[in-house]
Design a protein that fits this description.
Layout (H helix, E strand, L loop, with lengths): L1 E5 L7 E2 L2 E2 L3 E5 L10 E2 L20 E6 L7 E2 L2 E2 L3 E5 L10 E2 L6
Parallel strand pairs: 1-9, 4-6
Antiparallel strand pairs: 1-6, 2-3, 4-5, 7-8, 9-10
The protein binds iron/sulfur cluster (2 copies).
The site of one iron/sulfur cluster has 13 residues, from loops.
């Protein structure tokens, strides 16, 4: 399980800069830098109705990841102890990234 911090506060799954999902998918099949990765589980919060009031932030979660060129990727799973997802204000998942990506 990976400790995850997420600054994408406008994602519906975000609460207190943590993710409320029990697992996420990071995309970036051909990624060779953090900019080429993104959180595929991102959903834009349109405000109002769909708030996270009753959700609990998860500090550790399962992270599946397609960025096989990252040194923390083992069999498409993230084995880093801690990762940071960034991209506050993103309107689509492509505007987010895993800043912890490190090329092998
Ligand atoms: S962008 Fe990804 S990691 Fe961040 S809160 Fe949303 S689903 Fe969770
Ligand atoms: S640290 Fe690497 S393996 Fe882990 S989620 Fe980020 S890009 Fe994927």
């Amino acid at each position: 399980m990976t400790k995850l911090e997420c600054s994408v506060t406008n994602c519906v799954h975000n609460a207190d800069r943590c993710c409320c999902k029990s697992s996420i998918l990071v995309d970036g099949h051909k990624a060779s830098s953090a900019e080429d990765t993104c959180c595929a589980s991102f959903d834009e919060s349109k405000g109002g109705v769909f708030t996270n009031l009753f959700k609990t932030p998860e500090t550790r979660l399962e992270v599946s990841c397609d960025a096989e060129k990252c040194m923390y990727n083992e069999d498409r799973r993230c084995v880093a102890d801690k990762i940071s997802i960034n991209g506050d204000g993103a309107a689509q998942c492509g505007e987010t990234r895993c800043s912890t990506f490190k090329a092998r």
